[in-house]
Amino acid sequence: MRRHKSTTSSNMKKYIKSPEHKENNKYTENNPKENEICNLNDDDFKTAIIKILNELRENSDRQLNEFRSYVTKEFDTIKKNQTEILEMKNTIEEIKKNLHALNSRADNMEERISNLEDDNIEMLQAEEEREVRLKRNEETHRELSDTIRRCNIRIIGIPEGEEKEKEAESLFKEIMAENFPNLVREMDLQVTEANRSPNFINARRPTSWHIVVKLAKVNDKEKILRTARQKKLTYKGTPTRLSADFSAETLQARRE
Fold it and tell me: Is Coiled coil set as a keyword in this record (predicted)?
């Protein structure tokens, strides 16, 4: 029995001295007290071995607990990261939905802007057409007005009220006789209408209104005006002028 115990102790000593034990328990090499175990007797050796085993078990338990704590923390971190990732995914999905809604609104706005631009183009075209029609109507009105006035002569510079003493037609014939006696004898002068236009006195107007005389023949009007351009006209010694009767639009165009 003593021999068996001695053999067992010897084998344990050999194991402690083996390279495998030293590799797995490097900390024993750094502890001088544990290196002295091999020199102990059997009882002390057993006691030392039991102490070492207890320390190893305690160390293993401590490391296992630390590992479990580490794993638990890592697992909690993973769960937290998974929760954050899920929240990020939800946020990304919400952003995608918002972007989709914004894109839809942008498309709708672009369509509305395009429609407004089309409507604006149509309005501009309609306005241009209206302006063209208006100008055409104004031109037609001007031409019609000038056609109606084509036989008219305007007498300029006769004081207002003069035609009340004499009719406007008689006043015109006196001007013709005073300034163009030869022309009056040559032509059969026919007046269809004569009056001051407008037919009222304006005290605030610095100059008198013109007298408009309508002749029967346009050729007579043109002959009189050609002759009038060659001399200064008077009525009872007061300077006066004869002019063609144009519409306001034609007068404006001639001034421009």
Answer: yes
pTM of the predicted structure, to 2 decimals: 0.50
Domain ranges of the chain: 2-74, 151-255
**β partners of residue 191:** 215
Q: How does pLDDT run across 139-197, given as a tens digit for each residue? A: 898 889 888 889 999 999 888 777 666 788 888 999 999 999 988 888 888 999 888 87
Q: Which CATH number is 151-255's, of 3.90.1150.10, 3.90.550.10, 3.30.70.1820, 1.50.10.20?
A: 3.30.70.1820
Q: At residue 200, what is the residue type?
A: F
Q: Among positive and negative, which fits the CA dihedral 253, 145, 244, 212?
A: negative
Strand partners for 194: 213
| Residue type at 224 in one-letter notation | I
Residue 186's Cβ-side half-sphere holds a number of Cα atoms within 13 Å equal to 8
Which of the 8 DSSP states describes residue 167? -
Bond preceding residue 198 cis, omega within 30 of 0? yes
194/153 Cα distance (integer angstroms): 9
Tell how many helices (H) and how many strands (E) occur in the chain.
10, 5
